């Protein structure tokens, strides 16, 4: 937890009430965002995102596997987050493990939709190679390097950037197999398919402090929150997932208003992120 004096708490809360936060931002303004891609050469795709002094890395590893029995027409996506003990004192010991689990579950909810795949931001059907027999499994790992609030949004942005950077080897099915045999495949070392990220949402977390809510909260601001709602929104303005944390309940009308604000903010964030990803990939190509 962030240790603040009574005066500091009142200063943060008063500033948010007057739409002037301690770092000079308005309530719905993000900190500067920077993107690097291709930061982990061994991965199929990777990216590093900095939002202010929050610093996270996401990597994607693709492996051939067998589709789930109940979803034979889809590949699999496994998301796991690790909080480095050096990122914040609270991450040492069980604190880091609990937050890692919480973030992993929230990212799955925001990016993968329900168990049936409804509302998924990541199209798992595009990972299919042979129905019922062969698919790509994507292992997405997030690492929190430095924490100063708004980890879920930063990790969501890093995953979107890493997937944009991901190349999946082209697979040629060499022979048709019988019903109980695995098909023989030829995996190309030279041809790669770019992962389609057009439908992948951004995550916008609105943190409620007093009667107002803010985006991209710092650790100090998060220490004063009553609750937070995270909404994943795609380019078409469709809601792909929603998750809440914090003990205070929210009136349904407040949640609806927060979703409306999230849609508005998501468009700006999406455009900024796409621009930064394009610039990062251009730098990587040079």
3D structure, described in words:
- The protein is α+β, with helices and mostly antiparallel strands and 286 residues long.
- Helices cover 29% and strands 32% of the residues.
- The protein has five helices and twelve strands.
- The protein has helices at residues 6-17, 94-112, 151-164, 219-222, 252-285, and strands spanning 33-37, 45-51, 54-65, 76-83, 128-130, 134-146, 167-173, 185-194, 202-209, 212-215, 227-233, 239-245.
- Strands 1, 2, 3, 4, 5 and 6 form a six-stranded mixed β-sheet that branches. A four-stranded antiparallel β-sheet has the order 10-9-11-12, with helices on both faces. Strands 7-8 form a two-stranded antiparallel sheet.
- The N and C termini lie far apart (43 Å).
- 38% of the residues are buried.
Describe this structure in a few short sentences.
This protein has 286 residues and is of the alpha+beta class. The protein is 29% helix and 32% strand. The model has no long low-confidence stretch (mean pLDDT 87).
Mean pLDDT: 87
Helix and strand sequence: HEEEEHEEHEEEEHEEH
Query: Could you tell me how far the N terminus lies from the C terminus, measured between alpha carbons in angstroms?
Result: 43 Å
In DSSP terms, counting alpha (H) and pi (I) runs of 4 or more, how many helices? 5
Secondary structure blueprint with pairings:
Elements: H1 6-17, E1 33-37, E2 45-51, E3 54-65, E4 76-83, H2 94-112, E5 128-130, E6 134-146, H3 151-164, E7 167-173, E8 185-194, E9 202-209, E10 212-215, H4 219-222, E11 227-233, E12 239-245, H5 252-285
Parallel strand pairs: 4-6
Antiparallel strand pairs: 1-2, 2-3, 3-6, 5-6, 7-8, 9-10, 9-11, 11-12
Helix pairs in contact: 2-3
């Amino acid at each position: 937890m962030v240790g603040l004096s009574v005066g500091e708490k009142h200063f943060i809360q008063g500033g948010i009430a007057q739409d002037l936060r301690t770092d000079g931002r308005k309530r719905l303004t993000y900190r500067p965002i920077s993107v690097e891609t291709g930061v982990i050469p061994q991965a199929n795709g990777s990216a590093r995102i900095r939002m202010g002094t929050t610093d996270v890395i996401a990597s994607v590893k693709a492996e051939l596997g067998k589709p789930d029995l109940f979803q034979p027409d889809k590949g699999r996506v496994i998301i796991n987050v690790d909080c480095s003990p050096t990122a914040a004192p609270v991450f040492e010991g069980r604190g880091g493990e609990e937050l890692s689990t919480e973030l992993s579950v929230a990212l799955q909810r925001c990016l993968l939709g329900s168990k049936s795949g409804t509302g998924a931001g990541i199209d798992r059907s595009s990972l299919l190679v042979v129905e019922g027999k062969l698919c790509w499994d994507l292992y997405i790992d997030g690492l929190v390097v430095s924490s100063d609030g708004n980890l879920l949004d930063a990790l969501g942005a890093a995953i979107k950037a890493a997937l944009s950077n991901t190349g999946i080897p082209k697979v040629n099915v060499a022979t048709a197999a019988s019903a109980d045999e695995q098909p023989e495949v030829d995996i190309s070392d030279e041809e790669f398919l770019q992962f389609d990220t057009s439908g992948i949402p951004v995550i916008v977390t609105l943190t409620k402090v007093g009667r107002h809510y803010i985006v991209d909260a710092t650790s100090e601001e998060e220490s004063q929150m009553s609750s937070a709602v995270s909404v994943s929104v795609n380019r078409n303005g469709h809601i792909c997932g929603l998750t809440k944390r914090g003990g205070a309940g929210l009136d349904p009308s407040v949640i609806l208003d927060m979703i409306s604000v999230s849609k508005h903010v998501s468009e700006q964030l999406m455009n900024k992120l796409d621009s930064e990803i394009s610039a990062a990939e251009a730098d990587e190509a040079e």
